[in-house]
Hints:
ten-stranded mixed sheet, D-Maltodextrin-Binding Protein, domain 2, disordered N terminus
Amino acid sequence: MKKHLIGRRSLLAATASLLAPFPMAHAQAGFPEKPIRLVVPFSAGGGTDVLGRLLARSMSQSLGQQVVVDNVTGAGGVIGAQQVARAAKDGYTLMIGTPGSIQINPAMQPDIKYNVDKDFMPVSQFSDSATVLVVNKDSPWKTVQELIAAAREKPGALNYGSAGVGSFAHFSAEMFLMLAGVKMTHVPYRGTAQAIADLRAGILQAEFENLPGVLPLVKDNQLRALAVGSARRSSFLPDLPTIIEAGVKGYESSSWTGLFAPAGLPAPVLARLEKAVADAARDPEVLKTLKELGAEPVGSRSTEFAAFLARRRPAVVETVAASGMAVK
């Protein structure tokens, strides 16, 4: 009798073990079965928020479930990133990531409470916006090399502005100064608008800005663009050289956005989300809006996005260390 009971229990256990994976597999196959939360770790109305909402709207159509934007602000994107790092690994909590939240902040803050490699899975890069080096329209410099020569002649005499210490503009400028081997003085502001206003007024001599923020001013000849920081020329300013072409080897800086999930996302869920971003990057309405914003669509594979991030990381770490941007 005892042998019979043991055999029956073994059979039940074996049956349970065989059936156990099926509910999870079914759930993954049916993903998504409820609304998805997309964390934008910056305030509403900013550039990242606009792009995040654009992506969310297109993904909602592609996935057949609402993708709801949740602005979780604080600490330059750190608070929102921390929330997503601790979220369930089921694809229902995602984040729109940027260079600041994914690469610059972790390099600046050694005690940050998330590890990008261990806590996040890069799903797909959504967009890319070139950094552009701009000067006052009446400045004497018409090329990058002329600006470098002026900075070399009087180290620290030229001022450049940014939206604050640790901002993307600050980082982009410091990378340029490091690679060009020159010194300029950083003037941090509490936002981009005032920095651009002072550049136009001649109080500042240069600025490294995200292309969408200055493109209208460049086209209206209110600012002079010297070069773009992307690896390739921008389709928005095709006659403008890259900073690499202008003689600063190794310089690459662009303000990208991408979709991230907590690490450990099931493969079927990853594939579904990856496709949704790729669909968004081909959506005519999305393409129209991106063009108006001065951003390029991407829609990369997860592996491609991971390789892109790995290629960018060493320059970020080196720049932060060399510039003294790191929090001590």
